Amino acid sequence: MGLENTRSLGRTGFQIPTVGVGTCPLGELFEEIAEQDAQATLAAAWESGIRLYDTAPWYGRGQGEHRTGRFLYRKHRDDYVLSTKVGRRLIAPGARKTFQTAPWQGGLAFDHVHDYTYDGILRSYEDSLQRLGINKVDILYIHDLDTGYFPQEQDLRAKLKELESGGFRALEELKAAGEIAAFGAGINEPGMINLFLDSYPLDVFLVASRYTLLEQQIYADELLRAQQQGAGIVIGGVFNSGVLATGIHDDARYDYGKLPLSVADRVRKLQAVATDFAVPLAAAALQFPLAFSAVASVLYGPSRPTDVTQNSLNFQHAIPVEFWLSVREQGLIAEHIPLPGLPV
């Protein structure tokens, strides 16, 4: 599962492990996590062979990067791949005594500003190195520049203009100088891959929750275009924030919120097929995206060591081709979507 099991990241030729961990949960999105438990989770990931770690300034308002760095900084730098994100600068809050860290349940008491300018990208990158305590990252992703955070078109266009006027140049210069191996964008919303590719040939897209066992709508319109233009793809949120790992229960999460009835029905159908073949639903969710050849890696976000142990087993679980054929026959995955073990 480590560096010996890698794929090439698009046209860059840079090799990354096929599975990695994301540190959003360790930034305390859903619950506060003691420092010793966070470090034990990262240690379990390392012991299981994980050598790809993804973090961001926004995760826990700096907490995710601090925790990731505290674990990795004594490891040999050539032994792992590290990615973080740019586009937010953390700043001291104006009202320190009353500042709330929401939407994080814990995290650090820092406010933030969205800044995709030339200077903003470089400042974000340099600040990340300081929080990590590591003087090099491999991949930088433009973070959360989408319609979810900028629902008004004029606001979205203004931030894209910042990138076009200097932010992209900053990323190019970092890559040309050997500071990073690749740069790209994190994707939360349909349509954003095309919007980015219309302006700039990015190296990679980190796609969160939009290409999973539950949904593949962006495959034909966006992911295939990214592949054709030489961009690599990393898939995050493979469990759609939890439901594909936990199954249906009262507190099941889908895309950081409550589980809609329409999605619950689809999960039940997937679970029924999984039960018929004695396949853990989480194993199918982890392995599904890698059937698409442009996908270099999948990420999952553990919050405790047992998550790592279970997902290591899930990633290695042998899934019969008949399972995937049954999922397709049930109409849960379209004919044109690549499936593990089946010809494209």
Brief digest:
The protein is an alpha/beta fold and 344 residues long.
Written description of the protein model:
This is Aldo/keto reductase. It comes from Yersinia hibernica. InterPro entries: AKR (IPR020471), NAD(P)_OxRdtase_dom_sf (IPR036812), NADP_OxRdtase_dom (IPR023210). The chain has an eight-stranded parallel β-barrel, surrounded by four helices. It is globular, with a radius of gyration of 19 Å. The mean pLDDT is 95. The protein is 38% helix and 17% strand. Helix 3 crosses helix 4. The protein starts with 5 loop residues before the first strand and ends in a 15-residue tail after the last helix. By secondary structure, the protein is of the alpha/beta class. It has eleven helices and 14 strands. The longest helix is centred in the middle third of the chain and has 24 residues.
How are the SSEs ordered, and which strands pair?
Blueprint: E1 6-8, E2 15-17, E3 19-22, H1 35-47, E4 52-54, H2 63-72, E5 81-86, E6 88-91, E7 111-114, H3 118-132, E8 139-142, H4 153-176, E9 182-187, H5 192-199, E10 204-208, H6 218-228, E11 232-236, H7 243-246, E12 253-254, E13 257-258, H8 261-276, H9 281-287, E14 295-300, H10 305-316, H11 321-329
Parallel strand pairs: 3-4, 3-14, 4-5, 5-8, 8-9, 9-10, 10-11, 11-14
Antiparallel strand pairs: 1-2, 6-7, 12-13
